[in-house]
Amino acid sequence: MKTVSAALLAVLLVLAYGAQMSRWLRVLQREHYDPSALLRFLARWSSPPLPGAKAHQRAHPRRPFTLTHALLVVMAVAIVARAYDVLAVATGLYGLFCPYGLALRGKTSPLAWTRRLRATALLAGGFSVVVAVLGAFSAQPLLGAVVMVLAVPPVLDLTTRVLRPLEDRKAQKFVDQAVQRLEYVHPTVVAITGSFGKTSTKNYLSALLGSDQAVVASPRSYNNRAGLSRAINENLAEGTRIFIAEMGTYGPGEIRALTSWCPPEIAVVTAIGPVHLERMKTLDVVEEAKREITEHASTVVLNVDDARLTTWVEPLRAQGKRVVTTGSSSEGVDARVLVEAGRWTFIIEGVNVGSLDVVVGVQPTNLACALGAALALGVEAKSLLERARGVTPVANRLNVVTAPSGVLVIDDTFNANPASAQAALSLLSSLELSGRRVVVTPGLVELGAEQNSENLRLAQRVAALPAELVAVGRTNIVALVAGYEKEPKRFDHRDEAVAWVRSTLIPGDGVLYLNDLPDHYP
User: What is the end-to-end Cα distance of the chain in Å, rounded?
Assistant: First the structure.
């Protein structure tokens, strides 16, 4: 009987291990094989519920007590009591069903069994088998299997670090091909970076240059080594005169590495802001990482509405670089898009070249950066006004549409940061609505130590608008409830919130969908 019981527990733990691998491989793939992401997400999903006493309710609204927390408590008690069968059962249930809410397959970010993922799973499985076998020789044979289940995130972390040199060598082959393609086609490279506004500025610049310039831009948000080399290898046709390369970074050194093999003649920096602070920790580090894009460029286009970028101007000129200053609120810049009474006024090198009706969803500072880059490429100032008529919002970034129900919808779901969130709320406030204003959001992420305070401020701004807050998921619920100062409408998933909006709002109402997190976030 004892043998049968041990066999059943072993089967339970093997199934639990498979479920854990499925969950955490998906997180790893979604986070671009960043090994440190696994423990960050484990902490997000496993963080204990906060005190819910009435005296602290406003500052610390209750985070739900889930199956994850219950099983963790049982496992802790079992370890203290040395009740190893209970520990094995609790671990098996944890592996099968927890972290509670983190799906095995996922809807917004399903697992894709690529070559890299298969290699990672195989090596991680080997490490796990070693742990289980070593445990089998102990006084408690199932203890190794228990550790194997619970250690999936750190084992995948280790596996990813071990495989990284091999993956780097494989990726280098495509980089070498891209270098050869660049040397053969020999386009003028315009590189664009910034904490936000990169993709928008890239698209606006493409519109300003027009088809006559033989322009190729890196597609969508292909802004890392793999994406950029792929964009060059697949899209850089013979005769291309200008290649616009979006360049992103999670930390110092990444942009320097990109520009070492894809050196830009013109570098554009849109903004320095609190994005990816979870990885880069401080704005100074963000600024240091973005500055790398200027090292190979002979011309640098800067949005000097950003106070940090203003300090770059003179040092870059002292290095002998041409600096093109841009902005919306700043005076005396080389390219300015001034917003007045629903019109854009284009001021190019001190000359008013005309005005256009504002295109809702197009950020004037990003458009100004694109104008500055076009000037640096030799486009005549007098033609920029006409070309700007072809500028349109980027998909899922401040797009305004009227739903079939008559409700005005602002789609700003691609991503969000404190600055873009403020712009989206300002847009919602400016719409002529006779009814309700609603903001549907999971809040802002990857802000490190600033995340709680920034989400609290976001909810305060929603309340001050005034607008109704609909909070999605659990990632930022504590800060959102505290900032809103009353219980918002809450849904676990965005599709539930969308269904509520469609069944509740009527013509004359407006809704802002602000940010959207994939389902590997709680």
Answer: 41
